[in-house]
Design a protein that fits this description.
This protein is an alpha/beta fold and 271 residues long. It has helices at residues 35-38, 78-83, 104-113, 131-140, 167-185, 195-201, 261-269; strands at 2-4, 48-50, 64-69, 88-95, 99-100, 117-123, 155-157, 190-193, 214-217, 236-243, 252-257.
Length: 271
């Protein structure tokens, strides 16, 4: 897919308007909820997708197309999503230690039945409970993993301000989540964040680069994203919040995987 400009100055997103962490009610978090407020230099992406075929010279020729969804997308026809060429999806599962997305079960099973490789994600609330407690809840409410050709490792969504934590305290919280999740599932958790959030809230910490694949958020039509300090490369990239995909009514976040189908399957199966 390539992105083309529209006359609209605001993104045609099905998600609610982004807000700071303090203003996002429990349960309302999603991938990108805090993106704009986390970075002064980031601006809304007002483009729409051009669904014409890719040229081999484009960035998409060496990456795989994907989406991320939550209950904000409503009912999804996953067979149509598969037919539209989507190769993977991340699906919201949980927040804190009390909230499970009401559409998670339907989405996770629907993607599985349509043979879309998918993973679950947890919207972090570092101010509410420990990383270990949230990882335990996540692993028990959708974030588990199995080697079945269709399940990606769980993802930790980090955005929406620093939650009153120092960089060192945030590093400890993330490591607590990571260690607990790995002990329960055997997998390294994927980390979703923007360069602005990670650099501000962890101090550009390099401590996760050898542990976790990076899912970077950078809404742009550039050939490659800006990534957080401390990570040498990106594995997934959320490049817009205003995508269009068959089987989904309204806008949806669009993502890319940095590799081919063989590498995506290897990540799913931990091989």
């Amino acid at each position: 897919m390539v992105l083309v400009p529209t006359v609209s100055a605001t993104p045609a997103s099905a998600d609610p308007a982004p807000a700071s962490s303090a203003a996002i009610p429990l349960g309302d978090g999603y991938m990108g909820a805090g993106y704009l407020t986390d970075g002064d230099t980031f601006a809304p992406d007002g483009r729409q997708l051009d669904l014409t075929p890719e040229r081999s010279s484009s960035i998409q020729a060496t990456t795989l197309p994907g989406i991320d969804v939550s209950h904000y997308q409503g009912s999804i026809n996953w067979s149509s999503v598969k037919s539209a060429g989507i190769k993977f999806a991340y699906i919201k599962a949980t927040e804190s230690t009390t909230y499970k997305d009401p559409n998670f079960n339907a989405n996770y099973l629907g993607a599985y039945n349509a043979k879309v490789i998918r993973g679950a994600y947890h919207f972090a609330r570092p101010n509410l409970s420990s990383g270990a407690a949230q990882a335990t809840y996540f692993a028990g409410h959708g974030g588990a993993w199995s080697r079945d050709n269709l399940t990606l490792p769980g993802m930790l969504d980090l955005e929406g301000g620093c939650y009153g934590k120092s960089a060192s305290a945030m590093q400890s919280w993330i490591l607590d989540f990571y260690n607990t999740y790995k002990a329960k599932t055997g997998r390294d958790v994927v980390i979703y964040t923007s360069a602005s959030w990670w650099n501000s809230c962890t101090g550009g910490w390099s401590g996760m680069s050898a542990r976790s694949p990076l899912f970077t958020a950078h809404w742009t039509s550039a050939a490659s994203p800006t990534i957080p300090k401390g990570f040498p490369y990106w594995t997934f990239w959320q490049y817009t919040d205003s995508g269009s995909v068959g089987g989904i009514s309204g806008a949806v976040d669009r993502d890319r995987f940095n590799g081919d189908a063989t590498r995506l399957l290897a990540l799913a199966n931990n091989t």
